[in-house]
Amino acid sequence: MRYADGGGLTAAGRRRRETVRMQAAELFEQRIKPPEAVRQLRVSLKSAYQWHPRWREGGVQALASRGPSGSRCRLSPRCLEKPAVYLQQGPAAHGWVEDQVWTAARVTTLIGRKFHVSYSVSGATRLMHRLGFSPQAPARELVPAGASDGIPVSTSIRCRSKNWALHKLALYGLSRFRSVMLSGRFTVLPTS
Fold first, then answer.
1. 100 and 140 share a domain?
2. 46 CB-near residues (< 8 Å, 6+ apart)
3. Are 9 and 48 in contact (CB under 8 A)?
4. Helix 121-130 / helix 104-115 crossing angle, nearest 10 deg
């Protein structure tokens, strides 16, 4: 199962799923087979067939939630408030004076310097997402083809990490592309 935010269920989602598993355990105790449990609980057949042997071997406790998946955060809860403050100070405040852009590699380095904790670039990206930050394309000043007055067309383009069409649009500029709405998706086509 894939989730839009890139990672597992929320605490409320885990509780909801655990409730369904506990209801399945009650049905299994009444000698109801997985296909009938599927009809009553409106879950997938695969889930019911995975839960049934776990219930047989370990009882109701085997179907209890094991908590959030994945590894624990390397920063303590007290330290989790600080990265946002550091990022809002800007890259120049932390030694990157050539431009005012936070990259995932810079965030990784900043976390290592400030907290003495090692993160991979992808791990730092997931941490920033968890803290409410999203990937951004840098502001661009684009001049339309044939315009000689130099008036900017667009000042920024927001992109999501999985939306490569917008990412390419941000990289190559609006003057070389036009946008078309096709089947509810934003598609970027080169101009001729």
1. no
2. none
3. no
4. 90
Give 35-48 pLDDT, tens digit per residue.
999 999 999 999 99
Residue 68 lies in a domain: no
As a whole number of angstroms, the distance between CA 165 and CA 156 comes to: 15
d(CA 107, CA 86): 10
Between CA 34 and CA 47 the distance in angstroms is 9
Note the pLDDT tens digit of each residue in 54-76.
999 999 999 998 877 677 788 88
CA proximity to 86, closest of 56, 57, 115: 115
What's the farthest any 2 CA atoms get from each other in the chain?
79
Residues 105, 158 share a domain: no
47-54, long-range: CB < 8 A, 24+ apart: 48/24, 51/21, 51/24, 51/25, 52/24, 52/28
pLDDT higher at 71 or 33: 33
Q: Which residues contact 18 (CB under 8 A, 6 or more apart)?
A: 63, 64, 65
Q: Evaluate whether residue 3 is within a structural domain.
A: no
Residue 121 is assigned to a structural domain of this protein = yes
Q: Are residues 57 and 94 in the same domain?
A: no
The structure's pTM equals: 0.47
36: helix, coil or strand? helix
Identify the residue with better confidence: 78 or 164.
78
